[in-house]
Amino acid sequence: MATAELAGKHLVLGMTGGIACYKIAELTRLLTKAGATVQVVMTEAATQFITPVTMQALSGRPVYTSQWDGRVPNNMAHIDLSREADAIVIAPASTDFLAKLAHGMADDLLSTLCVARDCPLLVVPAMNRQMWQNPATQRNVTQLRADGLQVLGPDSGPQACGEVGDGRMLEAAATYEAIASFFSPKILAGRRVLLTAGPTFEPLDPVRGITNRSSGKMGFALARAAQQAGAEVHLVAGPVALETPWGVFREDVQTAQQMHDAVMRSVADADIFIGVAAVADWRADHASEHKIKKTAERTLPTFTFVENPDILATVAKLPHPPFAVGFAAESGDLEVHGEEKRARKNVPLLIGNLGPLTFGLDDNEVILFEASGATKLPRADKQTLARTLIAEIAKRLPEPSPIR
Ligand code: CTP
């Protein structure tokens, strides 16, 4: 989970009435853990769903609910509370509060804070499907976007009222990611990034197959970091048990051939291709249609293998390739194999995993191989490393070409 963007940030977290208030307890915990200070301000309605005592304990600061609160020395809570703020985040943002914001109303502490602010305002809507679809709500949201507010979500799915549809608040972790994303420098704004991640699975029969130990964590961390850097991100993922990073378009595949086809369908639009997947080099020539059974004679099955397409090399060979980046997981002699592999695959940048194979681990140490030489990066957790790598890639990007 990204933390660097939020360390030292001061957020006013405005809560309005809605059952999603329970998610804000967890959100507050995530934000404070990341080093942000969180000043909670609640509307009267929000206090019906969760108590100010809970929010005070989690944020470690007094909670404000009224513009007449005598604790603010100059009696100007509506100005003082947001004076130092890097942003105001309204979560959950009710239908009523969105309507108030769209019309510039200021009839309680939180709405007055929003009108009197001098910092960005992010809203995280939470409401029933019909309330979200109501033309008045949609009009208000369009107006809020036009006014420069960030609207995070809403999510789709089952709702507290028993209905299913758009309107539910993003989960706490997704809200956290969206806020972190807002604060990340947009070094890839306007760029499209295509990535592969995870292993591939090459069937031998309907229940068995060949795969490898790639967890997909590095690829997913890079997809998240690229999204947070402002890129439009398309992630082609092999079979992994990981959540899709917020704001990333994900396409699931199983085999190397499917991964290749998915990449080829989208690569023409990409400015950057990052091949992080541990693609199986071979597949069975003829996978059995039925489960292979043991025979009475105990004859062992035999397979012949054929080579899978090399996705990275194919992308690099295109007439107008995107900036193509490869990864190399080696069990020895990385310094020798890394540069050799980069040159063989004809990519400008190859990232080599240093040390023992790091499948599934959260830490990584890598070397960047490029024509001008090799550079070692310090050991870091995969999310920090992903951000560093995205910055390194951004530095090396050619200016966008008018013909692509
Ligand atoms: N790669 C790919 N398609 C393949 C094999 C590899 O796109 N069929 C990409 C990987 O995503 C990675 C890079 O090529 O970015 C290097 O992968 P690696 O498995 O280390 O290289 P191989 O070419 O398979 O070489 P070897 O297994 O012999 O080390």
Mind sketching the topology for me?
Layout: E1 10-15, H1 21-33, E2 37-42, H2 52-59, H3 77-83, E3 87-93, H4 95-102, H5 109-115, E4 121-125, H6 129-133, H7 135-146, E5 150-151, E6 155-158, E7 164-168, H8 172-183, E8 192-197, E9 202-203, E10 209-210, H9 217-228, E11 232-237, E12 249-252, H10 256-266, E13 272-275, E14 282-284, E15 305-307, H11 311-316, E16 323-329, H12 334-345, E17 349-353, E18 363-364, E19 366-370, E20 373-376, E21 380-381, H13 382-396
Parallel strand pairs: 1-2, 1-3, 3-4, 4-5, 8-11, 8-13, 11-12, 13-16, 16-17
Antiparallel strand pairs: 6-7, 9-10, 14-15, 17-19, 18-21, 19-20
SS summary, helix count: 13
Tell me the CATH topology of the largest domain: Rossmann fold
The domain tally reads: 2
Distance between the ends: 34 Å
Helix content: 25-40%
Number of strands: 21
Radius of gyration: 25 Å
Percentage of β-strand residues:
15-25%
